[in-house]
User: What shape does this take?
Amino acid sequence: MILSGNKKKLFFLILFFIFNTKIIFALDNEIVIKIDNAIITKIDIQNEIRYLKALNPNLKNLDEKEIYLISKNSLLREKIKELEIYKYIDEISIERKYLDSLIKARYTNLDFNKKEIFLDYLKTNMLEIKDIESKLSIEATWNQLIYQKFSQNVKIDKIQLKEKIRQDNSQKFKSYMLSEILFNAINKKDLDEKYNKIISSISNNGFENTALSFSISDSSNIGGKLGWIKESSLNEVIKKKLSFLSINQITDPIFTPSGYLILKINDLKLIDKDYDQEKQLKDLINYETNQQLNQFSNNYFKKIKNNFIINEIQ
Assistant: This one.
């Protein structure tokens, strides 16, 4: 079949479009990081950028290079956890009811009171609910893995906690809305240098964006937000540090087994004391257990990360 002049032009135009689209897609889908046999591509990082921007609207205030780096590191952390999980199970799946509770926690953290509003918000950010569900499932399964591995190593002094409750004669207690930045330092000089960088970043970019950039805690991808925490649940060192601060102020670095911790008071309220001592004890045990499991999680992640062959191609 012989094509006419116009048809030839159209034919070659279509070929040109298809060829260049493939080239553009290939460039966008270039491999950025190899972790053993797994890969992270530019498209993966672009998806992570949209995800982090949706959860942290203030992220848009940073320059694009910094946002790209934050997203790359966030995705690398998630991929390492995912690969480690698959050493023990064949499929990542959690109960629907629990997943729904995690989704609710995410959208209430963004001040949405209905899931439908959250779904519309995701669409405007070119995200789908399945993207959120996948990430929450990985994080929840990781936490289950940590619990299975280390729950027997958790040490709770119930006698000390009961005495703490008995000695508290206050009629009301404080509840703090806190955010955190957790970081490592190998010596005093390293601590000072990192702390100065963090303080400078907080001044220029805000606490949430600094948590995204510097924090090694699992809370980093939501700007370090911890939510409301009762003063009675905190250890004496942290409680004392916070007692001298007002809303929007931050602590000096606090040494913990996981690293150095900086806390910010986002809000503060007084609550009538609950005189149910059994409930108080249960709350204290849950908080202390979660704190220790978080420490095990951070330390285990640092350990396994060294066991993977990580090659950054770009």
